[in-house]
Amino acid sequence: MPAKDDAAAEKEKNLELFLKVGLDERTAKNTIANNKVTANLTAVIDEAGVTDGCSRTVGNLLYTVATKFPANALVHRPVLTQYIVSSKIKIPAQLDAALSYFVNTGPQNFKTTEFEEACGVGVEVSEEEIKQSVNEVFEQNKSAILEQRYKTNVGDLFAHLRKRHPWADPKIVKASIDTKLRELLGERTAADDEKVPKKKKEKPAKVEEKAIAVSTPEQPAEEILNPYAIFPQPDENFKVHTSVFFSDGSILRCCNSKELLEKHLSVTGGRVLTRFPPEPNGYLHIGHAKAMFIDFGLAKERGGGCYLRFDDTNPEAEKKEYIDHIQEIVNWMGWEPYKITYTSDYFQDLYELAVELIRRGHAYVDHQTGDEIKEYREKKMNSPWRDRPIKESLKLFEDMRRGLIEEGKATLRMKQDMQSDNFNMYDLIAYRIKFTPHPHAGDKWCIYPSYDYAHCIVDSLENITHSLCTLEFETRRASYYWLLHALGLYQPYVWEYSRLNVSNTVMSKRKLNRLVTENWVDGWDDPRLMTLAGLRRRGVTSTAINTFVRGIGITRSDCSMIHLSRLEYHIREELNKTAPRTMVVLDPVKVVITNWKDDLIKDCEARKWPDSEADCYKVPFSKVLYIERSDFRLKDSKDYFGLAPGKSALLRYACPIKCVDAKDVVLAEDNETVLEIRVKYDPEKKTKPKGVLHWVAEPSPGVDPLKVEVRLFDRLFNSENPAELDDWLSDLNGKSKVVIPNAFSVPPLGKGVGVGDKFQFERLGYFVVDKDTTPEKLVFNRTVTLRDSYKSGK
């Protein structure tokens, strides 16, 4: 008990400290739950000398330092904290530049003037300077702007100005560009809003001769392009961008009235407001990473905010476990919600609007069973209760609310268009009776709104400017706008994008839930799953995931399958910069150096980073060592560079060794399995073998090296698209998880290593310390191999 009390007291102390430096309570509590981030942040606060508190701006920058500072340059972290505390570095752009600078510098000394220049220290860009540069850029591009008018690519103008003033306030730059456009072009005309027809690309003629290499201009890297340029500004949401065609020949052209839009803009101040609305009934997967990138990313790029809204309309499916997980994983992905809300926060508003919908003649209480509703919708037949009097529906709906009608005996349905060509206009259900207490709202309600009724209204109530979702919701667009129009509510701009489909996995919640509940995998955070918790446990960083998603882009093409190798490319790119090197032997075979003294132990200098001689660690080298079994063959060949009888190989960081002949190989009774290889080392290093081997030696005579458990993960399914298969579970890869209980590691790997720490095991791949690690034994998960099978931009 005393140990638990001490731990609780320590958490309280750290929470108080994190609140003092300006972190909001949710971020502070999430940080406390992560021991590694807690340790980093307390160290950073101490280095900055702000244990008594600081401004929120400084605190948030210090939090970024604690979570993103490169491991290869920790010696410079105290210097950076002082730049932040003294307000020499005061905006995220400067901090990002500083972190990039230290990634490249590593532990080496740096020049202060060079660092300050790279981070814009002391640079103040006035509004007048920005306006002057805007005038100059417009003058240089005047003819093109006059020709293209409001179809001018504003992103290109931004790029010109960023080159001139990288530390300028982007909001002031945007405002100056908009002002200058109006001055030069006047008010927008109808022609400015016309869409430019896309030109069809001509197919090149087939040529039999060998193609001649042609030099082409280098395209911008996929990560540099601005994927959010396709979305309109909030003040442009008065245009018709969706039309709903009714069976009686009438057309609803969905747009906001001038009064509605002005009221909306007066509340939001013209800010972009988006929402990320997960259902709290499961763990988030990589598809949600794309949704977050779009929802949070657009808001961040436009200087707005993104709600994290829990779509908790089904009281039987929600769990606090999922709510806590979603909040924590959103934070881990690098996103900060503008507000955290629940659809259940608006249950009273939704109920009152449902009453109003009935009063306006657009909803009715129905008594059909679920099967009857399905049959009538398939036959495009009206419910027998569709035309009941409004007063009757009002009374019955009140009876539903008071719990006077049995569950399943009544629903509230929207009176839409049963003859429509759109199935999602067939009088969708707005409310059901469920005598189930709600995890968030308690037992106040026994009627609960449907997704189709609630989500568009809550979008409007929260003044969402851009309601963004995946393409399967496109057919619901008509219902979305019909309901808001029927209630006279503000209408957000709706846009759908393609789902993220990754090969060799499944991402439907139903299939993921089955994999977990039927124990095909080891929980929601199994490293083989494409859940974000699983990817994190596998050692994938949020930076790599976001870069991967950004590279895919925001498109409406819904038929593409993204190969897993493309994600792996971005994982390698990230870990190559951040994971220190070490040596581990997975399948060890014993090697005895016959010309080495029995009791001689020598320390070799091994590098943590390939390009840094300064950051090294010592590994013992002795008479007995171990190499990978696959690095030795009894029969040599020209394309083989490992060790073999009569052949030499170089032990990395040590010396060349040679197995003189087959007599030096000790075999087991089966006459095939190698038990021991006897070699001689070249003390003068005169031989220059092509093959380089990693190794682990006995730390002292007769003592085995450090034993660690290593888990090798591979694709969960054999097929690229297992979801297409009827018996998809039979496609599971039986070799997707291989456990090596007793791999050998160099001694330094066992010192000061914590869960989540990442390493490159030389010649093997990237690995991360798993949460199953104990004081007695380290456990590693393989994140990805070293092999690169995807090229950026392809």
Automatic annotation (TrEMBL):
Residues 13-170, 173-248 form the Glutaminyl-tRNA synthetase class Ib non-specific RNA-binding domain. It holds the Pfam family tRNA-synt_1c. Residues 692-770 form the tRNA synthetases class I (E and Q) anti-codon binding domain. It catalyses: tRNA(Gln) + L-glutamine + ATP = L-glutaminyl-tRNA(Gln) + AMP + diphosphate. Gene3D superfamilies: 1.10.10.2420, Glutaminyl-tRNA synthetase, non-specific RNA binding region part 1, domain 1 (1.10.8.1290), HUPs (3.40.50.620), Ribosomal Protein L25, Chain P (2.40.240.10). PROSITE patterns: AA_TRNA_LIGASE_I. It comes from the Eukaryota. One of its GO terms (cellular component) is cytosol. Residues 272-576 form the Glutamyl/glutaminyl-tRNA synthetase class Ib catalytic domain. One of its GO terms (biological process) is reproductive structure development. Residues 579-682 form the Glutamyl/glutaminyl-tRNA synthetase class Ib anti-codon binding domain. Keywords: Aminoacyl-tRNA synthetase, ATP-binding, Ligase, Nucleotide-binding, Protein biosynthesis. The keyword Zinc-finger does not apply. GO terms for molecular function: ATP binding; glutamine-tRNA ligase activity. Belongs to the class-I aminoacyl-tRNA synthetase family. This is glutamine--tRNA ligase.
